[in-house]
Write a structure and sequence with these properties.
Blueprint (H helix, E strand, L loop, with lengths): L8 H27 L4 H6 L5 E8 L3 E2 L3 H11 L4 E4 L6 E2 L4 E8 H31 L6 E3 L9 H10 L13 E3 L1 H7 L2 H11 L6 E5 L2 H9 L4 E5 L3 H11 L4 E5 L7 H5 L5 E3 L2 H4 L6 E8 L4
Parallel strand pairs: 6-11, 7-8, 8-9, 9-10, 10-11
Antiparallel strand pairs: 1-5, 1-12, 2-4, 3-5
Helix pairs in contact: 1-3, 1-4, 3-4, 4-5, 6-7, 8-9
């Protein structure tokens, strides 16, 4: 059975706390960026007392992520807007499906349209690509992880979309896990020095992972009982060799060069995790639109 990546209670508490504080602020800033001094076109064309019915419609297939963000966007503009989503987060939709239905002040609907869709299209795109990777390795023991290659200030939402797609989150930031990477090793003088320094100073007992570029480095990490080893840009033969050497003593993560064509082969080697930066930094937006169906309706 696949287990959750993080069992550290401090990590979970901090991430949840940050989420509550940051998401509303993210939405406020996104609205401010788009609206500025006001939605000039809508104010000129639409009267204050106009009410409309609208639909959010899928223009291509995908996985839904971000419905609560959409609701919050419109709530901030007008509490009078009522939204009903026809699917739950993580459910599939196809082209032509009506994802949600709205009713409320026309001005608020039009003003919030692009911001709401930007979030919905982006997050659904991440969830959709993540689901494709997860399905490729569904009957293996490997777990798809994300990375820190996220859009600045949107990480908390993008990592949420990864979870909706069936993946799991790697460390949220630099604060919740020790990950010794190549530049740390250079700064420390050697991989051995870096590991020993961290082990001696890790008073918070945070999870420790070390990035290894070759089998020699894997052997060094194993000799110091590092609990988690990242196999960075290794070929399939090297990955298999690392799995044989490890024999379950350390968790193994593959990173670098992972795509939909090779992820299955990598998972079948017996590694524990496969991190895929592409699910956040290269996920295409899903095409979704908002269409007003009736205007000047009864409130």
């Amino acid at each position: 059975m696949k287990q959750n990546l993080f069992t550290n209670k401090m990590t979970k508490k901090r991430v949840v706390s940050q989420a509550k504080l940051k998401i509303k602020d993210i939405i406020k800033k996104a609205l401010m960026e788009d609206i500025g001094d006001g939605d000039i076109t809508t104010k000129l064309i639409v009267s204050k007392d106009s009410f409309s019915e609208a639909q959010i419609v899928a223009k291509q297939a995908g996985i839904l992520a971000g419905s609560k963000i959409v609701q919050e966007v419109f709530r901030m503009l007008s509490p009078k807007i009522k939204i009903r989503f026809n699917l739950n987060e993580g459910e599939e939709f196809k082209s032509g499906d009506i994802i949600a239905e709205l009713k409320g002040p026309t001005r608020a609907i039009l003003t919030g349209e692009r911001t709401a869709l930007n979030f919905l299209c982006r997050l659904s795109g991440i969830a959709t690509l993540t689901r494709r990777f997860v399905e490729k390795i569904a009957d293996t023991n490997a777990i798809i992880l994300d990375t820190r290659k996220t859009t600045p200030n949107l990480r908390i939402l993008e990592k949420y979309a990864v979870r909706i797609g069936g993946g799991q989150n790697h460390r949220f930031g630099l604060f919740d896990m020790i990950l010794i990477k190549d530049n740390h090793i250079v700064a420390a003088g050697s991989l051995i020095n870096a590991i020993k320094t961290v082990q001696s100073k890790n008073k918070a007992r945070l999870p420790i992972e070390v990035e290894c570029k070759n089998i020699s480095e894997v052997k060094q990490a194993l000799s110091l009982n590092v609990p988690w080893i990242m196999l960075d840009n290794m070929n399939l033969q090297q990955i298999k060799q690392a799995v044989r050497l490890c024999q379950g003593k350390s968790k193994l993560e593959v990173s670098g060069g992972v795509n939909l064509k090779n992820v299955r082969q990598i998972a079948e080697t017996g590694v524990n995790y496969i991190s895929v930066g592409a699910i956040t930094h290269s996920a295409p937006h899903i095409d979704i639109s908002l269409e007003i169906k009736k205007s000047n309706i009864q409130k």
